[in-house]
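By way of example, what follows is a protein record of this kind.
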Amino acid sequence: MRGWLKATIGLAVLCGLLAGADRIAVGVAEDEAADKLVQSGRMSQRPDVSIDGFPFLTQALSRKLDDVRISSDGLAVGDGRQQVALHSFKAELSGVAVSGGLNSATVDSANGSGVITYADLAQLLPPASQLVHGKLPVGGSSRFSLSYAGPGKVKASLGPIPVGEGSVHNQGNTITVDGFQLDGLAGMLAGATGQRLEPMSFTLDSLPAGLSLADKDGATPQEDGLKLTFDGKGVKLLG
């Protein structure tokens, strides 16, 4: 009986040591992955990386990680001309094949999300002077102020003058805001009552982790800003 007890205790201790070693190894791998993402240019700042699944060492030996999660706040995204902050970015990566000591990594499938504030969204749109022909209600270099107007809609104004509502949609990584029409006081002051504003578009070319905007509902207005939804298959994460 004593021998059986000793063996049981020894096995429990060994399992505890192995589990501890596994958790240390995964922590080191998470830190290294976070550094590599910044060094590769896939992320503008160091993210939090979580490698799920147990045991990690078995996944490491097979060089295929089942589930990796990345999160960060305030990442820089832009259209090559202007950069703004992407808040509350989160991504789930499934089937991450790694090689060369984390110098290369490819993801089977991924999805994620983040938010651009309406103030930052306005910075990505062209100045109002390029869209309104005639006298502008506010100075010619003014930009639209944007806010939430319900599902799929945003409200715009030029200074204190409301312009109306428009819709937001995307095709690939190109986001378009359109449907605004100068009516009421804005139309009277601009001398263009009933004029429909030209669509406003920009293309994001620096999205995090090599992801792309989802084909459907990739850009969705919500109360705190424009929610971006990402996805991808066969994504080149590193290398």
Q: What stands out?
A: DSSP finds four helices and 15 strands in the chain. Residues 166 and 179 are 5 Å apart (CA to CA).
